């Protein structure tokens, strides 16, 4: 196996820089996937705590030879790979719908770093800075969404499908008649 490529991901929820290493035969082509896989690591953790599985039961209790070591390593590797695969889901690689501007993404990164510092060193100054950044991020995201909504409303015409979808969503199904409350003549038991 050769290392095909190394990609870095700039996620908003992490202060770390995740790296994706692609392994396989090198073809010289850059294949961009339309989907990416998201792993639920909490599910992986709980699934790996399960020790009574057929693949783990195949590992001998007494490992005495190199062949036994290789068998145990292979069984454990296959088990971990299966668990990780079962805890993944496919999502579109690039979504144009939710893209935030670069300055808002950077502000979110700064806010996450401040929250991390405030959690590690809970001083009043760090907590107030983190709270201020949270308020600023919320305001900037709200402002971005409002601007995006305003732009959509300005660009749609009465023949646009979004116009009719919005009208349908706001439409009431009709008036439901309810009877007036009447005084009960018989006591409730």
UniProtKB/TrEMBL annotation:
Superkingdom of origin? Eukaryota
Q: What protein am I looking at?
A: Uncharacterized protein
């Amino acid at each position: 196996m050769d290392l095909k490529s190394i990609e870095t991901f700039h996620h908003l929820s992490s202060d770390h820089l995740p790296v994706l290493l692609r392994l396989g035969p090198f073809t010289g082509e850059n294949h961009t996937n339309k989907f990416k896989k998201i792993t639920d690591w909490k599910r992986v953790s709980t699934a790996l705590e399960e020790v009574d599985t057929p693949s783990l039961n195949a590992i001998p209790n007494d490992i005495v030879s190199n062949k036994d070591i290789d068998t145990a390593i292979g069984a454990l590797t296959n088990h971990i790979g299966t668990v990780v695969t079962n805890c993944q889901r496919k999502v579109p690689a690039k979504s144009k719908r939710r893209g935030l501007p670069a300055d808002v993404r950077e502000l979110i990164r700064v806010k996450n770093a401040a929250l991390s510092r405030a959690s590690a060193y809970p001083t009043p100054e760090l907590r107030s800075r983190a709270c201020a950044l949270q308020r600023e991020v919320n305001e900037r995201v709200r402002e971005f969404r409002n601007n995006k909504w305003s732009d959509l409303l300005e660009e749609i015409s009465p023949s646009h499908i979004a116009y009719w979808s919005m009208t349908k969503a706001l439409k009431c199904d009709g008036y439901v008649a309810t009877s007036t409350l009447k005084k009960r003549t018989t006591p409730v038991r």
